[in-house]
Each structure stands twice: as C-alpha cells, then as structure tokens.
Amino acid sequence: MRARSDPPQVSGETTRQRLIDAALQVFGEFGFEGASTRMLADKADANLAAIPYHFGSKEGLYCAAAQYIVDRMAQHTAPLLEQIEHALRNGPLPRNQALELMHNYTDTLVAILVGSSEADGWAAFIMREQLQPGAAFDVLYEGMMRRVGDAGAGLLASILKRSRSDPSINLRAIAILGQILVFRNCRQTALRSLGWKEFSVERLEQIQSLIREHVDLILAGAV
Amino acid sequence: MRARSDPPQVSGETTRQRLIDAALQVFGEFGFEGASTRMLADKADANLAAIPYHFGSKEGLYCAAAQYIVDRMAQHTAPLLEQIEHALRNGPLPRNQALELMHNYTDTLVAILVGSSEADGWAAFIMREQLQPGAAFDVLYEGMMRRVGDAGAGLLASILKRSRSDPSINLRAIAILGQILVFRNCRQTALRSLGWKEFSVERLEQIQSLIREHVDLILAGAV
DNA sequence: GTCTATAGTCGGATAGAC
DNA sequence: GTCTATCCGACTATAGAC
Fold first, then answer.
1. Which candidate, A218, A12, A27, places its Cα nearest to that of A121?
2. For residue B178, is pLDDT > 70?
3. Tens of pLDDT along A195-214?
C-alpha cells in the first residue's frame, strides 16, 4: 500500500513521459488512426483522461512523440554530425579524411537505423508520417532528416570535388542513404529474402562492411 | 434516364471493380484503419452494403486490393522477369549480357516504382503492409517481391561468379534495390531535400542513369 | 493531477424491401 | 445486386468529484 503522499505512478517516470513512451510504441505499430486512446493509456498505465489533460488531444500526444524522436535522435547523432560539420567548415577536406568520415557516417547510420532496438518503434512512426505527411513531418524533417542528409551530401561534395548545390551530389547522397534505409524500411522483406530472423550484431557488421565497400567503389569511380 | 435493363453503375466497370480501384487509393492514402467503409463506398460510387456483399468485410476488400496489385505488377514486370529468368536458366551468362540485363532491370524498376503514377497508391499500400504485416503481406511477398528480388540476385550471382546462395549476393541485391526504393519509400524527404516538386520524366532519366553508374561501379569492383 | 462516468460521434455490419 | 434504415460497439473528449 502506497503512502498518502506518493505519486500514483507505477514507475518513477511521470505520467506525461510514460504516455510519450507508449505513444512511440503504439503509434509506431498501429499508426495514428490504428492506435486508440485506450491502448495508449493502458500501455502507459495511465488514465484515459490524462491524454487530453497533458497534451490537449490525441494529436497533441502524437506531435509530442515526434518531437521526442527528434530530440533523442539528435543526441545519438550529435557527435558524428558535429565532427562532420566541423570538418566541412574548414574548407575542402583531404580525400582520405573525407572517406574516413564517410565510413564513420554510414557505419553509425547502420548501427542506429538498423541495429538500435530503440529505432524499431521510431522507424515505423517516421515512415508512416512520410506516407501521409502532416504537422509532425515538418518536425521530423527540419529537426533531423535535413541535418543528416546535409552532412552526407557535404561529404560527398568534398570527396567528388563538386559544388554542394550540384543536384547530382544530392541524388548520390540519397542513393547511398537508400542502401542503408532499405534494411530498415523493407526490414520484413529483407529478412525474409535473406532467410534471417533478425539483424544480429554480426550481421550488422556484414551490412556495415558491405556499405563501406559500395561507398568506396562509388566514390572511387563517380564522375 | 437509364433503360430498365441497364446496370446501375456509373461507368462500365462493375461495382466490385470500382470498389477495388477505390480501395487501392483510399487504403494507400489513409491506411487500413484510417480508411472508413463510407469513404471507400463514396469513392467507388457504390453503396455501403456493397462491401460486405462483395468481399465479406472491409478486410476482405483490403486483401482483394493486395491481390490486384500483385496481378497488375506481374503484368508490368513479366517481360523483364521472363527475359532474365530465361537467360539465367541457360547456365552462366557472358558478363556483357548480364550487365545489360541488370541495367534493364534497374531502369524498369525505377520507371515502375518511381515514375508510374499507378504506383503512387500501391507503394503506400505495400509499405504500410510491411510496417505491420498481416495476411496481405504474404500475398504481396510471394506474388511479387520474391520474384523481383530473385531475378536481381540471380543476375548478381552470375556477374560476380558467386553461388546464388551466398548471403553476400542477397545483401548486395538488397542494397542495390535500396538505391531505387529510397526514391519511392522516402519520396517526400527526397523531393524536399532536392528542392523538387515531382519526379518528372527528365529527372527519372537522371535517376536511372545514376543507378546504372552505381551498379557498374559496384559490379566492376566487388569481390 | 488523477479518477469515474458519460456525452456525443462515428465505425462496420446487417435486415429486409426492391 | 443494390438500396435504405438501423443496430450496436468503439471511439475521443469532457464534466466534475476527489
């Protein structure tokens, strides 16, 4: 039996935070319409009325979850992106250094996007938002995707000695990102086609090494 | 005023077919839960009760739409896949012929996946089904994705002179497909990052030529 | 801040006339 | 096969006690 002054939460987290955690999972799995406020409240061990109280509405909770993803993702990628952005700020990079940064970039993205269990819920959330962009898409794009894409394109421009504004640089950056993202976006299809049940650590390393090899080949020969 | 014996449909299509057409669009845009039977019936210019009558339930209509996608996609890709499958059946291919088939393969997939307006609705449908695989996922995978993936991996094995069962062949095939799929799966993000409003014919050709270049570089150097 | 109870709406499916 | 009318369950949001 709890003492009178104890908060009624199950864990130490606030109801607000538990609702956001639940939202990441439940919206990710079922989508905005597929998720009901009852599911969300149950998963968070919170009361149904806590959603309109803390977030105004179901949609408010959805946007709060998008913002949370951006914040956490920024924490994960900050060291890498700062390193790249700092290096690019000081003019053109020596080819070796740029290639090493590029390998670091793809390895880190594979680890975060494909390997991180935290990303499981996030990825579905983000992908659904891309299918039918709403207010949360701007939050995700401006807070996260743009910076990641810019870093990759900047490195590419430096390695290929082309202008950052050359559209072929952007296209190439997207294609390279695509080689990583496919293992996340089409995870079920990829796993089934490989006859795998999951991406274990060892298999992640196979993927990282394959992407590095492709990047090297593309960057060695691209015109 | 229609004669007594005329069917009550607006167009020549049967109610059943109009419902499937509507389902492709509406489920694609809003997802299974996001789409209501009323939306579906309105879009198809059909009666609400026609859905349970023709398909048993909303879910039955959803599965019928998945089957329709598989059938149409098979029509689109049949010439290409038959050409590849036939060529692979007669033992190892000369490198030049295999490369030409590979270019044909990527060009066709870019045209269908990125360029076809028909694919707009389908792609979202398929991607949502990957996020939360249900009964329709098996229909899509077995009827479509497997054959496309197998053709690509078969070509790759032939070009790289590796066993078809070598997992690195499958991984490489997925990575190459990823470079194409990213322009479909992350269409909104890609367009925004490129500052484009749509993938025009001319831009599709840019993408096709870029993918061909990447494929050549990867296949020339891969070990 | 958290709870119960409930209002008000909209969902999918059905019954039965035509 | 197609229609109207309707049932009933599930949904989000709110009111008001504590």
1. A27
2. yes
3. 999 999 999 999 999 999 99
Enumerate residues 6+ apart whose C-beta is below 8 A from B40: B19, B22, B23, B26, B51, B58, B61
Sketch out chain B's domains with CATH numbers. 15-55 (1.10.10.60), 65-221 (1.10.357.10)
Q: Does B31 touch chain A (CB under 8 A)?
A: yes
Search chain A and give the residue with CA nearest B206: A168
Q: Mutation target for A interface from B29, B38, B131, B177: give the one with most A CBs within 10 A.
A: B131
Provide, as residue numbers in chain B, all residues whose Cβ is less than 8 Å from the Cβ of A124.
131-132
C-alpha distance from A219 to closest chain B C-alpha (Å): 9
Query: Do B180 and A185 form a contact (C-beta atoms < 8 A)?
Result: no
Gap between the Cα atoms of B212 and B175, Å rounded: 14
Cβ separation A210–B172 shorter than 8 A: yes
Of A109, A212, A104, A88, the closest CA to residue A159 belongs to: A88
Would you call B132 an interface residue with chain A, using a CB distance cutoff of 8 Å?
A: yes
User: So what's the pLDDT on residue B91?
Assistant: 82
d(CA B55, CA B125): 18
Q: Is the pLDDT of residue A4 over 80?
A: no
In whole angstroms, give the CA distance from residue A156 to residue A168: 10
CB of B95 less than 8 A from some CB of A: no
> Which residue of chain A has the CA closest to B152?
A193
